[in-house]
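Subject: Putative anti-sigma factor

B.,
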Amino acid sequence: MGQQFNDVSELVTDQGFLDWSQGAVTAESAIFREWLENDLAHHAMALEGKKLVESIVLQEKPLPEGQLEAALKRLAASINTQQHQAPVISIGRAVKRWWWAAAMFVLLAGAGLFISKMKHQPVQSGIAAGYGELLEHELPDGSMVTLNANSRIHISEGFENKKEREVWLTGEAFFHVKKTTDHKRFVVHTDRFDIVVTGTQFNVVNRGDKTNVLLTEGSVFLKMQDGRELKMVPGDFVELTGANDPSRKHVAAEKVLAWKDRKLVFENTPLHEAVQQIMDQYGVKILIPDQQLADTAQVSGIVPSDNLDLLLTLLEEGNGLKARKENGVLVIEKKSR
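Prediction pasted inline below.
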């Protein structure tokens, strides 16, 4: 890919990045994915940009005169918040470049080009789990949701009074949905499909170009963006990656749900996939200089998801790897004999 991004402020104004961050399959997002896969270091920048974009809910209407400056200040404050939440990643940039990026955000929103995941329903509240955290929360209808690290949900306005109980998920969550006397549907919106239920238990992952569902109890159906519907029964695992059709897979439920016990389970997992999970979990920047190692190495083990130092130590001991810090970046290499 010819285009390069020097920092997040350049990244967030790229149409390919915007399409990718919203789960849209376009020619621009395909080019961006090529850039993303070219170097694992790009993943950290993309995650940083995606988190920044998702933390700012823009209303798709023209800004009244005088509010532009306020919008820019809110974005600047959000940027400062990101710096405090993920100190391992250095995002200090030139102030002028951030103001330029902020102006681009406002222009895109005003022109109707910025597509928010929450555009089809106003939201009344958001619930989020930070890096390395687990959060259990009771929804207004009595349903329970457990959020994995670096995950958030938004609840529709008038959640209990509408025909459908709607939430929007980014990240990973386990839902235990309570049935209502009027059998009101509960809908979880993801980037690639909606999960429609009345009362059941299921796990959802909605990160990057991957969305999947594991049904542990009851029944649900998935409503695809093209209108197709796919019914699931307990034990089913359905995944949709990129532009591919949804596929059913056999998985070990205890492995998928290990995060609820604050564990990550790797079983002959490609190193680059394991690294992506760790970056999602902790918000750290990880680099594997040896591309062959990233592509061919596999890791196995059950490691804690709430203690990064212990996690890295266990991965090193059991998989012939070595992790070191260099300028705020975790570098993973093959251990020398």
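DSSP finds ten helices and 18 strands in the chain.

T.
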